[in-house]
Amino acid sequence: MGVRPATVQTWKKKSPAFQQALERGRNQASIDMQVEKALFEAATGHVVTLRKPVKVKEEKNRPGEGKQTEEKIVYAREQVYVAPKITAQMFWLKCRRPEIWGGGGRAAEAEQEMASVAETYAYLLNSPLPVRTLEALEAAEDGENGEDRVCGAE
């Protein structure tokens, strides 16, 4: 921030709003880091440890009672590999290397559409429609004379 730490401490004491803003920023940065880590793991694959319930039978010999079987649930840990997700890889590459992987996405499409609209608009401004009679317009609507277009544009 360009100030001494003591100055920041003074501002925090004097202004509860400043203190809260710092805390919100710190929390947001923490959340962003968690999302970045999750995206990285989704793109590269990772190992997770699952806690699975398992039914266990236990036989006990009790004097005078014979064999007794008890069932109980215990939790076992199992490590599972989660394969990388192609969509996470594509998202990562498009954001990190747009010049190679075409990260323009919808913005690039919108830019092309706007260029096309601007080109069409410029063409129409520089190419006035021919003057036609009502009969010629009606004939064009009916498809007579091999014309399907009213304005006769190429």
Structural class: alpha+beta
Taken from the alpha-carbon principal axes, the silhouette is flat
Succession of helices and strands: HHEEHHHH
Q: State the share of residues found in helices, binned by percent.
A: 40-55%
Query: What fraction of residues sit in β-strands?
Result: 15-25%
Given the structure, what is the number of helices?
Answer: 6
Strand order of the largest sheet: 1-2
Rg over alpha carbons: 36 Å
Mind summarizing the main beta sheet?
A: 2 strands, antiparallel
Mean pLDDT: 77
Distance between the termini: 61 Å
The overall strand count is: 2
Note the quaternary state here: single chain
Q: How would you describe this structure to a colleague?
A:
With 154 residues, the protein is α+β, with helices and mostly antiparallel strands. Among the domains are: 47-82, no CATH class; 105-154, no CATH class. It is 55% helix and 22% strand. The chain has six helices and two strands; from the N terminus they run ααββαααα. The protein has helices at residues 5-14, 16-44, 86-96, 98-101, 105-126, 134-141, and strands spanning 46-62, 66-82. The chain has a two-stranded antiparallel sheet. Strand 1 (46-62) and strand 2 form a beta hairpin. Helix 1 (5-14) crosses helix 2 (16-44) and helix 2 crosses helix 3 (86-96). The longest helix is centred in the first third of the chain and has 29 residues, at 16-44. The radius of gyration is 36 Å and the shape is flat. The model is unreliable at 146-154 (pLDDT under 50).
